[in-house]
Automatic annotation (TrEMBL):
Name the UniProt record assigns to this protein: DNA polymerase III subunit gamma/tau
Family classification: Belongs to the DnaX/STICHEL family.
Pfam family, one: DNA_pol3_gamma3
KW Acetylation (keyword) present: no
A GO biological-process term: DNA-templated DNA replication
Catalytic reaction annotation: DNA(n) + a 2'-deoxyribonucleoside 5'-triphosphate = DNA(n+1) + diphosphate
Key word Metal-binding present: yes
Assembly and binders: DNA polymerase III contains a core (composed of alpha, epsilon and theta chains) that associates with a tau subunit. This core dimerizes to form the POLIII' complex. PolIII' associates with the gamma complex (composed of gamma, delta, delta', psi and chi chains) and with the beta chain to form the complete DNA polymerase III complex.
Domain of life: Bacteria
Length: 510
């Protein structure tokens, strides 16, 4: 016998089997019992929350030989045909693949004919928001004057894309994300019935990563069984999902709390070497700090976590101030975004973390020193943080003394000096090289595709550090101009290549 996926095997066949949608189940059952069936329904909600299953069950309820009944028998010919998608009276249209007007025109032609086997003709249009506007217009005409034997069930994950003229003619039912505990319990039931041993933590992790969708959760369980066999451990799910495990998450946050740069970077290295995807790891880090944030503001219950896990989080949250947690979330989520288009995803994450650690919380809270005597006109004005101007006015000095050759000659030394002053500046600058001295400014060129590094370099602190490093080797504080150099300047030294940077971090280029 051919293999049947767990999802198909365990798809709900009755209203009572639908998990996590009690209001919808009650509404539909009542409608059938009181014979107040709407001519058109609009099922909306996230993917995998039971919309299509509910639509098929409704079709069975209406056409079952024993019906109409809220509890279709599941045994009669009609129920069987609907279950297997063979009923001529239940027509499923996938709007995602049939966007065309032809299908809806066809529907308009045929909807007039009475059902052949059952009492109703049931049209299930999945992902209805994908229809073209012409198709929507054709559908609207049918919905305006539906034959009494026709029932329409429109399903969508994106309600905002359904024209109001259509939506207003339907009874709308909102499917919600299924609660974590309900998904876990259902997975447990399936695993038990199928004869698999699964760790509670493993099922919890599957449920968590399916984000409230039962279909994804069951598909993941199926994959886990193919991957791990009859015994599903937490570790095997971690490997399967490429997600960060508990140890990595808590270790990472611990190292951030301690300001331990070396440990943070080695944890990232270890995380990647175990085969995780960089963006998944970044996302997991963001979620971990989000959890800490909830604990900090006292809304930990909203997290749907085990009490043991919550306790662990609570302990860790004590090591952070609220502003520090917010800083970490900002830095990590920005890195997660930047990583999407950047060729060196890991570098982006590393730079973000190094920068985060460079802004020590106590430093961040200090007000910048402003010497009133330097700025007499500002004395009456409330103090604002003073930003270093991007091109500070330098004392008029002779520019003849310093040449671009001299800067180039000492570039490696300047980079070394940068490393001491600002690690993130150093990492960014490693993708650049000095081009020329023009109008008294030192022009630094970043290779094409490294605008991320340029952007990172372009903050007051990094500019200041670079000017200082340049002064150490040239005797002058030259204003800095950052450009994207085109064509790409050839990287002269190994330290200027991505692999050079990776080497510095003790890793490989991603
Ligand atoms: Zn039946």
């Amino acid at each position: 016998m051919s293999y049947i996926s767990l999802y198909r095997k365990w798809r709900s066949q009755t209203f009572n089997e639908i998990v996590g949608q009690p209001v919808i189940v009650q509404t539909l059952k009542n409608a059938i019992e009181t014979k107040r069936i709407a001519h058109a329904y609009l099922f909306t909600g996230p993917r995998g929350t039971g919309k299509t299953s509910a639509a098929r069950i409704l079709a069975k309820s209406l056409n079952c030989k024993e019906g109409p009944t809220p509890n279709p028998c599941g045994k009669c010919e009609t129920c069987d045909k609907i279950k297997n998608g063979h009923s001529v009276d239940v027509i499923e249209i996938d709007a995602a693949s049939n966007r065309g007007i032809d299908e809806i025109r066809d529907l308009r032609e045929r909807v007039r004919f009475a059902p052949l086997e059952g009492r109703y003709k049931v049209y299930i249009i999945d992902e209805v928001h994908m229809l073209t506007s012409e198709a929507f217009n054709a559908l609207l005409k049918t919905l305006e004057e539906p034959p009494s034997h026709a029932i329409f069930i429109l399903a969508t994950t994106e309600i905002q894309k359904v024209p109001p003229t259509i939506a207003s003619r339907c009874q709308r039912l909102d499917f919600s994300r299924i609660k974590l505990a309900e998904i876990t319990a259902h997975l447990k039931k399936i695993a038990k019935a199928e004869g698999f041993a699964a760790e509670e933590k493993a099922l919890d992790l599957i449920a968590r990563s399916s984000e409230g969708g039962m279909r994804d959760a069951i598909s993941l369980l199926d994959q886990a069984i193919s991957f791990a066999g009859k015994e599903i451990s937490y570790d095997s799910i971690v490997t399967l999902l490429g997600t960060a495990d508990e140890e990595l998450l808590f270790g990472f946050a611990e190292a951030i709390a301690e300001g331990n740069e070396t440990r943070v970077l080695s944890l990232i290295k270890a995380g990647v070497e175990e085969g995780r995807s960089m963006s998944q790891v970044a996302r997991d880090f963001v979620m971990h700090f989000r959890n800490l944030l909830h604990l900090k503001v006292g809304s930990g219950e909203a997290l749907e976590l085990t009490s043991e896990y919550l306790e662990k989080l609570r302990d860790q949250a004590k090591k952070f101030t609220l502003p520090r947690i917010k800083e970490a979330i900002k830095a990590l989520s920005r890195a997660e975004l930047d990583m999407k288009w950047h060729p060196h995803a890991r570098l982006v994450l590393e730079v973000a973390i190094v920068e985060l650690l460079e802004t020590k919380p106590e430093v961040a809270e200090q007000k910048p020193a402003v010497k009133v005597s330097d700025r007499p006109t500002m004395a009456a004005v409330p103090q604002k943080p003073v930003e270093t101007p991007s091109q500070p006015i330098v004392k008029p000095i002779k520019k003849d003394g310093v040449t671009i050759e001299r800067i180039k000659h000492h570039w490696k030394d300047i980079l070394e000096s940068m490393k001491q002053k600002s690690l993130s500046g150093y990492v960014s600058l490693s993708e650049a090289e000095p081009i020329e001295i023009s109008s008294g400014k030192l022009v630094i060129g970043f290779r094409k595709g490294f605008s991320f590094h340029k952007e990172r370099m372009d903050d007051a602190k990094n500019r200041e550090s670079l000017m200082e490093a340049v002064r150490e080797y040239s005797g002058e504080r030259l204003p800095i101009e950052l450009i994207i150099a085109e064509p790409a300047p050839a990287a002269a030294a190994a330290a200027l290549t991505p692999s050079g940077v990776a080497e510095y971090f003790g890793g490989r280029v991603l």
